[in-house]
Amino acid sequence: FKRPFGVPEGRAQENFTDPDSRIMKCAGGALEQNYNAQTAVDEQAHIIVAAALSNCGSDAAYKCEAVFKQLAASGYELVVAVDRAGKGSKPIDPQRLPHTAAMAAKLQSQSGKAAYRKRKWIVEPPNGWVNQVLGFRQFSLRGARRVRAEWKLVCLALNLRRMAVMCA
C-alpha cells in the first residue's frame, strides 16, 4: 500500500466548512469527508446504551493491547475483532502482545465466532433503523462537539421510538 489504511492521499483537499471532520475510506473504496459514529446496543431491547463519535477513520483504538488488558480485567465477556472483520490474517506474537493473542484465540474458537456473529443482529439493526426509519443520512451541524451532540440526539430519538413500540 502507498499509505496506511484510512489515510487519504497527500493531494486530498482539506474541508473548509468542517475542519474537525476527516476524509475516510467508505464502502466500495470511496473516500468521503465523514465522522465515525459508534453505538453500544442492549441485546434484549435493542436500545442504544452508549453513543460515541470520532473523526478517526478506523476502529484501531479498540484493537490495542491496553484495551484488551482492561477487558480481561473487567470481568465482562466481550469479543473484539483484532483485525479486519475477525479474519485472523496476521500472526500475533503472544510474548509481546499476550492479551491481543488471547483475544485472537478467543475469536477463533466456536464460542468466540458465535459471539462475534451476534453483532449482526444486536448492533446492526439499530444502525439500519437510524438510516431507514429515521431517515438520518448526514449531519446537519458542523464541528466535532456539535456533531457529537446531534448523533446522541438521533440515538435518543431512536430509543424513544423503540420504547414507545415496546410499551404499546
Provide a brief overview of the structure:
The chain is of the alpha+beta class. Helix content is 39%, strand content 12%. β1 (22-25) and β2 (31-34) form a beta hairpin.
Provide the structure class.
alpha+beta
Q: Which percent range describes the beta-strand content? A: 5-15%
Radius of gyration (CA) equals 18 Å
Order of helices and strands: EEEEHHHHHH
Globally, the shape reads globular
Q: Spatial order of the strands in the main sheet? A: 1-2
Low-confidence stretches: none
Please give the count of helices: 6
Number of strands: 4
Overall pLDDT confidence: 84
Main β-sheet, in a few words? 2 strands, antiparallel
Taking the alpha carbons of the first and last residues, their distance comes to 53 Å
State the helicity in percent bands: 25-40%
Question: Can you put this structure into words, describing what you see?
Answer:
This protein has 168 residues and is α+β, with helices and mostly antiparallel strands. Helix content is 39%, strand content 12%. The protein has six helices and four strands. A two-stranded antiparallel sheet has the order 1-2. Helix 1 crosses helix 2 and helix 2 packs across helix 3 (110-117).
Ordered list of secondary-structure elements with their pairings:
Elements: E1 22-25, E2 31-34, E3 36-41, E4 48-54, H1 65-74, H2 98-108, H3 110-117, H4 119-122, H5 124-132, H6 144-167
Antiparallel strand pairs: 1-2, 3-4
